[in-house]
Structure formats: C-alpha cells, structure tokens
Amino acid sequence: MNAVARLSARNAWANRGRSLLTVAAVVVSVAFMSAVLMLTGGLSSHADGGVAAAYRHVPVVVHGQQILPNPPGEFIPQSGTALPAAALTAVRAVPGVSGTLGLRSGYAVLERADGSIIGKPGTGGGVGQSWLGNSQLNPYHLLAGRAPASVGQVALDRAAAADSGVTVGQHLTLVTATGHHPVTVVGIVGYGSADGPFDTTAVLLPAAQAQSVLGVTNSYDQILVNSPPSALPAIAHAVAPWDGKAATGSAWAAAQHSAITSALSFEQLFLIGFALVALLVGGTLISNTFTVTVAQRTRELALTRALGATRRQVLTSVLAEAAAVGLFASLAGAAAGAGAAALITGVFSLLHLTLFDTHAVVTLSSLALPALVGFAVTVLAAVLPAARAARLAPVAALRDQQIDESGRSRARAITGAVLLAAGPAGAAAGVAGKNTGLAGAGLAALLLGAVIGGPLLIAVLSRAVSRPLRALAGPPGLLSGRALARNPRRSAATANALLLGVMIVSFITVVVASVNQSTGSGAASGIRAQYVVSTASPWQWQVTGETVSRLRADPQVTGAAEVWAAPAQSRGSLVMVGTVDPRAIRRAWNFGWKAGSLSSLTGNQIAVQNTALDGQHVGDTRILTLADGTRHAVRIAAVYSHGFIGFDAPAYLLPPGLFHAHSPQPGAELLLVNARRAGASELNAALGGDQSVTVQTAAAWIGQGNVKVKQVANLFYALDTLAVLIAFIGVTNTMALAVRERRRELGILRAVGMLRTQLGRMITLEAAVLAGYGAILGTLLGTLGCWAITRSSTATDLSHFQLPAVQLGVIAAAAVAAGILLATWPARVAERSPVLEAITTE
Amino acid sequence: MGFMKTHFTEHDASGGTAAASRPPAATLVGAVKTYGAGPDTVRALDGVDVAFDAGAFTAVMGPSGSGKSTLLYCSVGLDRLSEGSALIGQTDLDALDDRELTLLRRQRVGFVFQSFNLIPSLSARENITLPLDLARRAPDQGFFDELAGVLGLSALLSRRPSQMSGGQQQRVAVARALLGRPDIVFADEPTGNLDSRGGAEVLAFLQHAARARGQSIVMVTHDPAAASYADRAVFLRDGRLVADLATPTRESVLAELQRVTP
Predict the structure, then answer these.
(1) Which domains does chain B have, with CATH numbers?
(2) Residue B78 and residue A744: Cβ atoms within 8 Å?
(3) ipTM score here?
(4) Which residue of B has its CA nearest to A831?
(5) Rounded to whole angstroms, what are the CA distances from A158 to A140, A150, A173, A193, A226?
(6) pTM over 0.90
C-alpha cells in the first residue's frame, strides 16, 4: 500500500462517523431507486404476448375495421368490427386460397365452484375463442391434454393455468354473456412463443359451440387465410363490402405488437417519470452528502498536498476511496432495494391493498441501473470537489475559513433563473399544445432550476428571516439564520432532500385527487340505490344479464338498474359513453340535472356530464364514433353534474336505443340495487357466491371508488412511502453531517456561554427554516407538476385537475413538523458533544 | 493604536499593584487530571496548587505536554478534574452541573483561544456581544466603544471574520472576553497564530486591561516574550508546578525555562 492510499484509508477510518453516514446515504438512495424500479417493473413486465410467433405461419389475416383507438394505458384485443359469415365465403372463393379458418371471440370467464376467478387479477379479462384445430393457422397450440372437442370441454392458456393452479381434468364454471356453463378443462394451450395472449385470459371452446356459448352472432373476429402472398390484394377486395381488411400475418402481428407497446407506454411514461425522479432524488442525496462534507475534505486534501502529494496522487486516492465506497454501497443498496420492495408489497398485501401486481419484479436492470447511478454519482460527487480543491494552492485550501460563495455566484444565479423561467414556460407550452412530453421536460427544468438556484434562494431567505428569528428566539435565532446564509450550498443540500420528498407526496396527492375527480365527481350526491353490484376485476369483466336476472328474481330486491358503458370516439380522443334505463334509474341515481333531464334522451339527443362539456353548451352538436364504427351527429340536450365513479364511467349518456344498437356489450358496467331488509351479504348469497361481481353498500362503493382507481392510488402510496422514507433519512443524514462539520463553531458557542438548550434551539430553528423552504417549494413544484401533466394529457382519467388545498396544507405542515422532529437527533448530537473536544480538535 | 504609545511606557513602571487584598480570581487545590486507565494512564496534572490573584495578569508556562492547557481547561470547567478542586472566585466548579457551568462561563469568565475564536457567520460587533446576547444582557455601550476604540476595531465592526486578518480576529476575541467584565479572562496561546507585531498589540492590551482596570487574566503560553507582559509567571513540568516568577522578563523566563526543561 503506498503512502497516499494508506493516508486516505487512515482518513476514512479517522472519520468513520462521516464515512458511515456517506455509505448510508448511498445505500439508501440506491435502495430507493431499485425499489421503485422493482415496484413499477411489476406493471410493465408483460411481454408482447408472443403475438409475432402466433401469427408466423399465417399468410393472411382478414379482420374487421379498427374503429376506436386503444385508450391510453389499455389494450382492447377485440376492438374491430366483426365480419359476417358471408365474408368467410367470399374469401374462400378467391383464387389461390387453399384454406380458411374463422375465429370467433366473446366475453368468457372461468370460475371455480367457490366463485373465484381463474386468471391473473389485474389483466384485461377473459376472452373465449373458438379452437381452430391443429392447423398451422391456429395462433394457439396444444401444450398438454387434448383439444376441446365437445360440449362442456375447454382449453385454457398456460399463463392463466399456471397462475391459478388449474390442471387438466378440473371442473369449472364458464361465465359468458349467455350465462353459467359447467365445463371441464381438457387442454392447456400456448400462444405463439408465449404462455398466453397479452393481458388476457384465453379460454378455447370447440369451434362448433363457440357461437352459441359466447352468445355472438354468426360472425368472425378474424379470418385466417392460407394463400400465397400474391392473393392478398384479391382477398382485400373480396372483404371490402364488409369493411374488412386483409394483411399479411406478420404485418398484422406487428400492428398488434405496436398497439400493445403503445398501450403500455402511457403507464410506462408515468413509471419512467417516477423512476427518473427516484434516480434524481437518490443522486441528489448522495451528492448532498458530499457537498456537506466538502469543507472538511478540502482541508484534508490540502494537508496531503502540503505534505508533498502530487495533484495526481491526491485525485487517485480520492477516486479509489470513492470507487470503493460507491461500489460497496451501491451493491448493498440494490440488495436493500429488493428487500424494501418486498417489504412494501408484503405490508400492502397484509393490509389487503392490491397493487397492480402482487409481487415486485426483480430484474437485472432494476438492480444494475440504480447501482450504476449510485456508483457514478458517488464517484463524481467525491471527485469533482476534490479536483477543485487540488487546483487550489495548498495553503489557500488550508486556511481556516472557507467561504461558500454559492449564495452569490452569478453563474449559478443566471443558470438557476433561466431554468426557473424556462421550466414553467415549457410546462405551459406543454399544456397549451397538449404535449405531455414537453410539459414533463418543463417540469424537469424547473426542478433542476430549483436545485441549482437553491443556494441563492436559501441565502436570500435566510437573510430575510434572521431578524424575525432573532426577535422570536433571541441570539440562537439570529445565529441560525446567519449560519444558513453562510453555508447556502450545505443548507440547500439539506432542504433539497425534504423538497423532493414533499414534491413527490404532493404531486401524488394532487394526481389521486384529480383522478378521483375525473373518475368520480358527484357520485356521492348521485347515488340513491342502497347497493352497487360491480365487477370484481379492475378491468373489463362485466355484470352479465344472468346476474341481473338472478337479482331481480330475489324477492328482497325492489329494483335493479343497469348502467352500461362503452368506449367511443369524440374529437379524436377516446371517451366513455353509456346509457341507463330511464325508468329503472330514477330510484337508483340522482343525476343532478343542470339542464334537461332523462326524458331528453331520445333520438340523437344525449346528456353530457358537466365536467366533460369542454366548452360546449346545450344545443351544440357533436360527432361521436361508436364502437361499431358508425358516426353519429348527436345534440347535447341535457347536462348532469352527478356522474359515476371509475376510470370507465361514462361521461356521455346516450338514448338506450342508440347505445345498444351501436355499442353491443356483454354486460352492464354497474348494477344499482334497492332491496328490502337484505344486506350486501344476502345479495351476495342470492348471486350464488359468484365472485366475478361484488356487491357493496352504496357508502362502501363511494368510499372505495373503482378498483382500478384504488389500485393506481395504492401503487402511488407505495411510491409515496418510499419517497417520504428517503426524504427523512436524507434530511437527518445531511443535518448530522452538517453538525459534524460545524463542531468547532458549536464548541466555541458553548465555551462562551451558549446553553445546551439554546444550542438545540438554534439547530431546530435552522431545521425549521429549511423544512419550511423545502415544504413550500416542494408543494409548489408538486402541484405545478400535476397541473402540467393533467392539463397536457389527453387521457380521460386525467381530464380534471383538482387542487386538494387542505390536504396540501396538511402535507406542508407535516413536512415542516417532520423536518423539525428529524433535527432532534442531530441537535442532540450537537448538544452532547463535549465542548473541549470540539474546540481542541479540528 | 493609540493606547500602545501611551501604555507601552507604563510597562515596567506600574507593577502588579492592583488589589492584592481581594480573594484569588481562580484557584486550583490538589488538582489531579488523569487520562486513560491502567498502565497507560497519563497524569496531565499531578497535584497542582495554585491561586490566580485577582487583578493580576498571570502567565502559565511550560514545555509541550507539561499540562498547561489541561490546567486552563480544568480551571474554567471545560474539563473536570479527576481529583482536587477548582474554584472561580469562591465557587467550586465540581458542584456545578453543565447548565450552571455554562452560565458561570457566560457571566464570570472570558475566553481567548489560539485560533478559530469567532463565529464565522457573525460580524465583529455581534461576535463581541455574543456572550452578553446569549445571556440577554445589554452591553455597556460606553465600555464597548472604549474597547473597540482602544483595540482599533471601530472601523471593522461590521466585518465578518473571513474579512479580517488574524490579528484583528484575535483583538475581536479579546474584546469579547473583556466586554462582560468577567471575574477572570483565560487566554490559551492567544498570540500563537500571530506575527510578532500582531502578537505584541494583543499582549499589550491584555497587560493594560489588568493594570488599568484590575482585570484578572490567566494566559497559557510557551513564548517567553509573551510571558514578559505578565505580572507573574508560573511554570509547569510533567503536570506539576515547578516554579513561580514575579514580574517576569524575557530573560528571566528564558532562564527559568531552561532550568525546568529536562
């Protein structure tokens, strides 16, 4: 070991308190980053479902017209119009076509005897399809058992079978639009290169039974054609009368693949955004830690230089030390992140809060990326100040008073000001142009501006508050304000940890409030029914007609009103339209009519929820493209204020005739029930324990909201928990380090007569000022961020921006309180440190 | 430096005449201070009896490791004796808890350290009034102005420590130590980091404060020239008091140091 290496090793050991805190900061930051990536990875881990391989041997696919775009964050496998049997005949007649298979699809869910559902919760739901035999055209292939051949036989995709523990030979119940059917699983199938199609549980039915069991008309979703590629134009021409489209199998698979990818990209945008924030928080925390200790390190390095070490030797030793610390701490942090993610999912499942996915997904990138960032930031944060210190003449660096000029730096002021101005401008431009990416970039600039300009803001703030603080708390008050102003970079580093935490928490609070507002405004005042029957699955399983008739047959039930919903297109974006039975709904829902009423819903007259008016008025005409692809000029005849809850809640009410004619659905979205004496459990019993639907009291339904909203909120709260944790650890850590850095000064204060209580008060006041700064700025940034995202996004789920002022106030106040509370440990360390040691050591 | 010209001339004339009748400003009785345990025990103070006269300027001398600084720290309650007792005036420090010790330091003791004396975020004025501010006592404005004037600080009062030379910083520290009219001022190598001119200014002022105002001062130093400003010099070696010299001069101190240094 050479002299310089030995020196830096000795230095690290002599300052082991500092070294430990530094390592802790890196470990915690990396753990945070990787826990976030693992938690969010559970969302985006879906593969493309093997669609490319499934259609590899299909020369031509004929399909109906794609009517509606997939909604952001969702992928609807069957959103094209069906092709009538005549189309199949026409394709068969095309010269060169040597084989055709028609694929029927419909709503289908498998249940166990106890009513529990087969398939992964949180996926897009169940689809029943006809088994096309052992043809190379069949996108499915048999993996185990045999093919479904007769009534009561089904095959199941292997992903769902594995997830639910279903084996060949098991007896289950198949729920379709036509009711409950007893079935036996006779085979397990794969889908192309995957165990099952994307986001869907596939149930394969004998081709002969598919139509009657699924309750679909004599039509096909796809016609798979065996023909030479040259026949493609002729096939396309043949199906044109039914708006059919023909594509090569590979082109069709590629289109599906990109639809899936873009469906994921919306949620991934959110997750990537959060992961970036996590990386930023973690990186900031690490570099903060080094910022706080830079004065002490600079002196050590200067001493080494003064003793004859070359600049290069010094830098090498710093690099080696930082690399060792960074490597060890980053690896430990990545491992701790896996633990943290597991802990959070564990706690959430213990509390019966469902996340999107029941487990955190540990991937190489969720471990390696944070470790890499942690390592790089550690090395940079250590080496950059060292390089600066090494440039200084040793004597200058050794001088006792290092002046932190960052509070006056012009370059910093200009960069900060430019970013602080450009950020909101970018966000506003993003909002104006409905460009979420631009808005996000603006927010990033704003955040960066706040971090860079932080020392200046802190310096100004501290100068402003030091007089009031003196008036409030005497000399400790003055001293605390002055100390903050004197070390603006160190102060900002401490405050930033809290700022980022508060920013994330307030952002999420506003998002959740906005999503709730977007998805459930007015539901509480609207509900008149006692019970709500809704689907147990967050996605698309619907309340079937069979459920409705079972409930209506129950003597306790006095009324049941169905609320239907379906996607439609309006002004280029996806909206949810719906309908209700005007007579049944009266006792179940109060729409809070602002204009018109239920009786306005005739012909092409529709009602619009006031929050979805988008500047239109009663009497205006709007073009709606309904699920079957037909375009309708509808007139806004009524406006209501009490809409339903949920991501899929309709904001447009159509006359029942118009809706059902053009938006065929297997079942209703909601069923609103009134009953004599019966409770929710009795109603559940009346449904025979069918777990594909849940019965809730009206109050519980309002309170819980939609399952999917709840899941999103829960995921956010999990990320929230992490953010708060990291902020708290970061604040305590930087404060403790700052106290260590100021030992000498604190010792002098004690020596000349500052009482322990006064010293404690001084540290606490510093913490309070920093916490106040972090809390206010964090709340502002978080709120502005959410505003920009919701306002720039075209997603229906984020159509409203809701400012929960009281909650935000509580969060800011809690952050200040937490900051003060977190200062108690560093304050105690400061109070307890022996005066003599402090003034005799450096 | 107006006072230097007027008071330098008094240097040898006025002698240690202040109130010898007053009780000692600080006293150590049978003072023992040990560090460590077992065979490695270091006896930094090994039975020291000494009384620092009120109104006198006393220098504590001795080679490195002789226990000078330990003596100082124990005298003012920054460190506790292992055996024996330390008194400020009539107050036994051993009987005081941390809060009482802090209040005693604040009200009755002034400090000047070798370096890093000042709070970097406070101006010179604020540093000077800091102990009084902490006690919420208003400084005697007349005395403040006089100190600032005599120490040549009047024009520097709004400066921060980082904007002052080492000598200026030490003079601020001296003003801080004196402003509250403490029973005793302890100075730990106050000129150790200064050049000879800056050191002479500080020492001359301390001497002036003792002679003209009856301010009790104890100064730890290893510099014979510094000790020559004092009314009395005591010598430590291996934690014991080995010599006591009245009206020390540079030569007599040097001679004594040579005698006591092994």
Answers:
(1) 2-16+54-76+96-260 (3.40.50.300)
(2) no
(3) 0.81
(4) B98
(5) 11, 21, 18, 12, 27
(6) no
